[in-house]
Write a structure and sequence with these properties.
By secondary structure, the chain is of the alpha/beta class. It has 16 helices and eleven strands. The protein has two domains: 121 residues, Aspartate Aminotransferase, domain 1; 234 residues, 3-Layer(aba) Sandwich (Aspartate Aminotransferase, domain 2). It binds (2S)-2-hydroxybutanedioic acid. (2S)-2-hydroxybutanedioic acid binds next to loops.
């Protein structure tokens, strides 16, 4: 039977990891997959995480199953992180947390929940969006549709986005990036979030907020403005949160599906269905990442260390954004790439074309996604002059 199976190309983002490893160019630069890098180009384990792991190793008493919703301590810690301390949504008991295998796992739970419990609803994503969104929802049997997000000049096309949202059929699902939009780095202002909320209300849409980069844009609370606004002003919201980036625990697969319902009764109904979806996918989530996060967030001391480290990472990225534009000045390209300093989060939609990206890879050993998305955390004071020279060469 297997003789009929065709080989397909691997994932475009994850494939860059292997391609980069194989490249022997000593000056090669990895701007591909979205992992944070420090000034030395490493992705170290955060100090708060190491300290939490030491405690876990010492105190762990069992490795029994943790249940389909995961570790309750994790859920109790993530809910206020995402929705805010003292959130009226939490006070009303309207929000449920389900620990998931990464943000991707949370998205798949959301997709299966929509497919099974809200049949007939299509899912609208920004154009462009994280390429894996394009796979996850159809894999659950859902139809994916797109609303515009970036214009031909590589700027946020908010008017186009809003006009398209106004045309979405009532009751459909609209996927919004909470912050650090992947792949563009263009985020909505507070005023724009307010306008989105109004349209979502008018059209009775169900927002699904992908929140994978909390703390990488402007700050933990600042980045949560959009999801909190929606959760506090709407009866129903789905949020998928990830601890991969802000805790640097990529390989531990630690995320959370947050379901916000009209009241506690409806939340419990929804929650019971999510447990079934999780059970049928993987039964229980992996425990270790959630235990690390719970250990940190339930300790004032570890939380303080974590905040400090996260602030360092965010500040480093934002400084590199400005330095990148500065490095292009001698080539007269600073205006052309000025957007990089304005965008937020790990990624920049640079405006480089797929052909330019290919040349950067083939001629200079610089790796990024063909859409022109660069992982800004891959910039460094050492490689910026080389990057600027290479970009000038392909312009
Ligand atoms: C990315 O977009 O590079 C990250 O979210 C990693 C991934 O899984 O694609």
């Amino acid at each position: 039977m297997f003789e009929q199976i065709e080989r397909v190309p691997g994932d475009a983002i994850l494939g860059l990891i292997e391609a980069f490893k194989k490249d022997t160019n000593p000056q090669k630069v990895d701007l591909g997959v979205g992992v944070y890098r420090d000034a030395q180009g490493n992705t170290p384990v955060m100090r708060a995480v190491k300290a939490a792991e030491d405690l876990l190793l010492k105190n762990e008493t069992t490795k029994t199953y943790i249940g389909s919703h995961g570790d309750p301590r994790y859920g109790q810690a993530v809910l206020p992180l995402v929705l805010g301390e003292g959130s009226p949504v939490l006070e009303a008991g309207r929000a449920s947390a389900t620990q998931s295998p990464g943000g991707t796992g949370a998205l798949r739970l959301a997709a299966d929940f929509i497919a099974t419990q809200l049949p007939g609803k299509d899912v609208w994503v920004s154009d462009p969006t994280w390429p894996n969104h394009l796979g996850i929802f159809p894999a659950a049997g859902l139809t994916l549709k797109k609303y515009p997000y970036v214009d031909a000049e590589n700027r946020l096309d908010f008017d186009g986005m809003l006009a398209a949202l106004k045309e979405i059929p009532e009751g459909d699902v609209v996927l919004l990036h909470a912050c650090c939009h992947n792949p563009t780095g263009f985020d909505l202002s507070r005023e724009q979030w307010g306008q989105v909320l109004e349209v979502v209300k008018q059209r009775n849409l169900l927002p699904l907020v992908d929140f994978a980069y909390q703390g990488f844009g402007e700050g933990l609370d600042e980045d949560a403005y959009g999801p909190r606004l929606l959760a506090e002003n709407l009866d129903e919201v789905i949020i998928t949160s990830s601890c991969s980036k802000n805790f640097g625990i990529y390989c531990e697969r630690t995320g959370c599906l947050i379901m916000v319902a009209k009241d506690n009764e409806q939340m419990e109904n929804v929650r019971s269905q999510v447990a079934i979806v999780a059970r049928e996918n993987y039964s229980n989530p992996p425990a270790h990442g959630g235990a690390i996060v719970a250990e940190i967030l339930h300790s004032a001391e570890l939380s303080a260390i974590w905040h400090e480290e996260l602030t360092e990472m965010r500040d480093r990225i934002n400084t590199l954004r400005r330095d990148f534009v500065e490095a292009l000045k001698p080539y007269g390209l600073d205006q052309k790439y000025a957007c990089v300093a304005e965008q937020r989060g790990m990624f920049s939609y640079t405006g480089l074309t797929p052909e330019q990206v290919d040349r950067l890879r083939n001629e200079f050993g610089i790796y990024m996604v063909r859409s022109g998305r660069a992982n800004v955390a891959g910039f460094s004071q050492e490689n910026l002059p080389y990057l600027a020279k290479a970009i000038a060469a392909v312009n």
